[in-house]
Amino acid sequence: MVRHGAGRAGMRDNGRQFRMSHGYGPAGRISAVLPDRTVPFTPMTKPIASRLREAALQLPPKLASAARYVADHPFDAASMPMRALARQTGEPPTTFTRLARALGFQGWEALRTELIDDARIDLEAAREAPFSSRPLLPSGEGTLAGRMFSTDIHNLAELDATVLDAAAAVIEQAGRVFVSGYRSCYAPAVHFHYLYRLFRNEVALVGAAGGMLDLELGAIGKGDVVVLFGFAPYSRDGFLTAQTATAAGAALIAIVDRADSPLAQGAAVTLIFNPDSPGYFPSLSACTALIQALAVTLYLRSGAEGRDRLRASETRIAAHTAYLDTDTSR
User: Fold this and answer.
1) What is the pTM for the complete model shown?
2) By percentage, how much of the chain surpasses pLDDT 70?
3) Does domain 159-319 have CATH number 3.40.50.720?
């Protein structure tokens, strides 16, 4: 998500009127009334996947099948609209509405909100441990890739374009633009540098020359802007770059994973992307989408001058025959 201020708000209380209007049964269990039976469920504090599996043991066959599917594919269920989920499972949309109400939610969107919340908590907890500590899945496991795609879709949906113009205004006013990212964030830094350099000349990539970071950072001064990429665990070089930029009087644009990132201290504008993934490595899909949108925003704001520079770059690239000729008729 693109932020210019506070971090995320919690989502756990959305759609929970059931807890206020329905009593708890014996042993602290909830009784939910279905059209044909009353089914006891465990308290709402239990993870939604566990509640779905337990409920599946007592629900009618169609609802039980839907409950097991959602429990086994929480990322798909969290990232898809109800109708898309219904098409994928072959069940009518009303099945998922009935399932949600059977578990005590007002409707599917309230259940889906909790799926998203639980997924975020699981992923953020997993990020605190090394990726190599995650269990290996059986060979040929097909669901992980789908879960990764679903998580990327959710991360993309979190992005907000409303602060892109604020970031672009700071960048375009700077005399020089320094772009920096380290380790896995080097790739998005290179990508943004390439895109912006197509229509602006005063753009430099910091950290590209091995062992000379101190000299590169020494060139940053007042009136410049540093566009810095990073996510936890943060690179020491990234933190040094952020400190150097602010100490030199340069503006800092932080493209990071959270508003309270140490790389965002003193930033003029902070753009946030979510690198979470159920796989074994962080995802840069949302970061890539964000910087592409930022580059397009800068290009549109540059007007005719930017267009002329882009045309000049295209002509120069064509003259150097940088691209493979795929016309097989020649």
Assistant:
1) 0.61
2) 76
3) no
CB < 8 Å & 24+ apart, contacts of 15-21: 15/105, 15/106, 15/107, 15/109, 15/110, 15/111, 15/113, 15/114, 16/44, 16/105, 16/110, 17/106, 18/44, 18/104, 18/105, 18/106, 19/44, 19/104
Domain spans in the chain, listed from the N-terminal domain onward: 17-22+30-130, 159-319
Average the pLDDT over each of 86-90, 310-314, 320-324 and give the range with the smallest value.
320-324
pLDDT tens by residue, 295-321: 999 999 999 999 999 999 999 988 887
Question: What's the Rg (C-alpha) of the chain?
Answer: 25
Which CATH code for domain 17-22+30-130? 1.10.10.10
CB-hemisphere CA count at 13 Å for 71? 20
Nearby residues of 197 by Cβ (< 8 Å), 6 or more positions away: 203, 313
